[in-house]
Write a structure and sequence with these properties.
The protein is of the alpha+beta class. It has 2 domains: 195 residues, D-Maltodextrin-Binding Protein, domain 2; 202 residues, 3-Layer(aba) Sandwich (D-Maltodextrin-Binding Protein, domain 2), CATH 3.40.190. The protein is built from 17 helices and 12 strands. The strands form 3 sheets. It has a 5-stranded mixed sheet with strand order 2-1-3-11-6. Strands 7, 8, 9, 10 and 12 form a 5-stranded antiparallel sheet that branches. A two-stranded antiparallel sheet has the order 4-5. Helix 2 packs across helix 13 and helix 8 packs across helix 10. The termini are far apart. 55% of the residues are buried. The N terminus is likely disordered. Pfam families: SBP_bac_8 (PF13416). This is Extracellular solute-binding protein. It comes from Kineosporia babensis. Keywords: Signal.
Amino acid sequence: MGQRRIAAAGALAAALLISACSGGSDDAGSSEDINTAPAGEGQTLTIWHYESDASAMGVAWDRAMEKFTEETGAKVDFQLKSFEQINTSASQVLNSDAAPDVMEYNKGNATSGLLSSQGLLTDLGPALEAYGWEEKLAPTIQTTAKYSDLGVMGSGKYFGVPNYGEYVQVYYNKDAFEENGLEVPTTLDEFTAVLEAFKAKGITPLAESAQEYPLGQLLYQLALMDANRQWVTDYQTYSAPADFHDANWTAAANTLKEWVDKGYVSKNATGLKAQDAGDSFIAGSNPIFFSGSWWHGTFNSEIKFDWGTFLFPGAQMSPGSSGNLWVVPENSDAKDLAYKFIDITMSPEIQGLLGENGGIPLAASDSEVSDAKSKELIANFNTLTERDGLAFYPDWPAPTFYADLNSSLQELVNGTKPVNEVLDQMQADYDKGIKEIAG
């Protein structure tokens, strides 16, 4: 990696250039208004995030909080929230006196974009200039940090700052593969053969959750198998109508239904959360888990068997992007301290710690990352980005589409709706969400 910053592929920025006005108001001030050495004695900064203690981000940000107190003298009131807590209540909480001063929030139109369009997030442009963050964020990484007046990513003002990258890959139990004479697949057909081999031994191969994000990301990955960049751009930015009955979505839904019917995915997945699926992989109950790089640190510390990772076989693109954002709620009364904390998370010490513990830092050198599995994680990310392979996430286009997608997939797994009706429902939910944003 050298001194080269890890960044998303170069074509992403062009792919997401859309016609939109700048978001936010014009009274955010200038960089001269930002105090980059705030005195925090007697003050408290309230921070929310949803990363586990064992995750790379959890480890790095714990140290960042310590460093923040050392440098400013301010206390930290850290409150661990779940992804679902923040995802479902952000608009309500941030529009109240209960808002934190800085928090981790999901990037994309349906989340950070929505909050920015509602006037609930602070324009970070002046802080970005004062601290020089833009120099640490490649233009393509900045795609998910900027939002228009409509809350559509890719242009407008800065409402968030990412400090790591992420993507979805295949985690696999090396011991289980070896015991069953299986090798890492390189095509979708080979991957399916591996699933069948495990099922023939009475093993449900895929750890899954249909109540939360994992199954939706698997469906999206299957839709990406023969998709191109324009297909992704149309879907994510409404540059052309998305058709859930096109060849990509139809093949994906049919394949997933077939995998459920053959027992590669348990029907119990409808009642399972993402943590349940991750725990099942950790326990060795399921030998394969298709999910995000954010699990890497937890697996590294908790898994007892030999495990590894590989990009989804046969795919040029996979779900992925910059990491989640640090955002500063408009109601925060400690904004200079919030900016200082964000800056500390971008420092060489914290970036190196993030990389060493299984994260994907945006500014870290090889000398700062020595763990073999972490190097593998970063190498896979580089492979994906070098071929313009980050396709964002399936729920991003509309504010309610995350819950809508999960609901549709529960119907598919349960068999309560046939594939064509599931696709009809996804189309209706998507179209409704896009209309609410774009009119």
